[in-house]
Amino acid sequence: MDRGAYRRSGSGGLGAEALVVRRALELKGRVEIPSRGTSMLPLIREGSVCTFVPVAAADLRRGDIVLFEGEEGGLIAHRLIRRGGAGAQAPLLCKGDANIGFDPPVPAAKVLARLETVNRDGRVSSRLSPGFRIWGRIMTAFPALSRAFRLASRYARRLRGQGN
Question: Is the pTM of this model over 0.85?
Answer without folding.
Answer: no
